[in-house]
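Lab notebook, bench 4. The sequencing result for the construct came back, and we need a structural model before the next group meeting so we can plan mutations. Quick request posted to the team channel:

Model the 3D structure of this chain.
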Amino acid sequence: MSEQPTRNAAQLTLVAPRRAKPQRHLADLTMAERRAAVAELGEKPFRADQLSRHYFAKLTASPDQMTDLPGETRERLVSQLMPSLLTSVREITCDGGMTRKTLWKLFDGSLVESVLMRYSDRVTMCVSSQAGCGMNCPFCATGQAGLTRNMSTAEIVEQVVAGARALAAGEVPGGPARVSNIVFMGMGEPMANYKAVIGAVHRLVDPSPEGLGISARGVTVSTVGLVPAIEKLAGEGLPVTLAVSLHAPDDELRDTLVPINTRWKVAEVLGAAWDYAARTKRRVSIEYALIKDINDQEWRADLLGRLLKGKLAHVNLIPLNPTPGSKWTASRPEDERAFVRRLESHGVAVTVRDTRGREIDGACGQLAAASPEA
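Done. Here's the predicted structure in token form:
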């Protein structure tokens, strides 16, 4: 490949620029911290349990519905601990309403996206962890937009709570339902916002009233390969799925497609992934966006197959959802099929991701980039 990214790895923004923080929210805090916060406001600590039950179990932040709290108390607690963090700017649907993409405005005007996808046996939500992204992958709309800031734990959680409310209210076809799966594959590099993302994972998986009570095995955290963060995640004791956005099996190409590869090479990234699998007993998902004439050659499938053979891994092939005006586009169907066959010949488990959302700017960052508010 001749074209190089517009910034080299040394210029990648791994730390978000300093900005004003969103107001503190219940979902930012552990249960002990919530009780302390309520006590600071002059209320009995058990009020934190009541607030948590309303937010995480009853999915409400409306004081009018908190009739177990005194009127004046509930108004004050809600204003202090349940501020509005996300404002819906635009919502578009496809698949008969079963796929819903929402563009959110944060308190400082930053734009992020989430997607709810309802299937016959599950409901998956794809959430953002940063406004923008500093990884600079050239085929990704978010990566080309650059990093605006990290999202807070509560801003991440609110995306899921909003989806849970829509499902509970029957707004998604198929009747009331619950969110069962979360993928941190929206805007941003989750491992570059590690503290907030781990906080959000706890809020998602902790039992009610501490959190939403979603199974940790239904949560997937993705990364382009921040090796120290992968190692740290392995020690958290959270049986979440690790997804590595590999996109190329060789360093020469991956240096271009995923510029952070100039810091941590393929062997280092996969080594950390195999350590994660060994410690958690969880199969690693290898994400691979198939890009026409770039990374979809059969010899690269063979190389990938040799790297993964015998490992606790699964390849998730992603037909690229092209950004309008970009030279990067999805592989030909015949090349996709050949790539799958070569991987399978090495005994590697592989699936091709469902391409839901293509007609609604489904790839991360496309809706935000197209918004007049961007």
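Residues 153-168 form the longest helix (16 residues).
Will bring this to the meeting.
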